[in-house]
Structures are given as structure tokens and as C-alpha cells.
Amino acid sequence: xxxxSRKLPIDEIIxxxxxxxxxxxxxxxxxxxxxxQDFRVCLLESGDLEFNQETASLGEGETVGDPLRLCRQQGRxxx
Length: 79
What we know:
alpha+beta
């Protein structure tokens, strides 16, 4: 079921046992793995069904200090 929260009453409460924040690849994969379980799952995503630059800008950020670099080498993660 797809619900647009902009159309819900301001005091609406959504009851769920599991809430996944972010419908990127990891969030969608996790939600799909939980299909058919004996509990309710809510997958939250900001924005609309179509691309919106204003919403996309919410994920922008700035690194301050030393940048974090992750590399995969021979099955190991190094910083």
C-alpha cells in the first residue's frame, strides 16, 4: 500500500512494528525480505513519486575535517 503522508490528517498515527527509513537499494531490499512476516512494516521515503530537486537537496552535506575514505581490498575494508 502506498500512502502520501501529505494527505494524512496532521495528528494521524501510523502503527507499525518495523519502520525502515529510506527507500534506497538497502531499504527496499530489507522491506522485500520482510514481506509475508507476522508483523507490520512501514517504509518511509521523502519526496514524491517523481524527482524533485528541493527534496533531493535534503540529502546534501559537507565534510568538515579529514575526509573519510572507504576502500575494499581483498575482502577487507581500510580507512
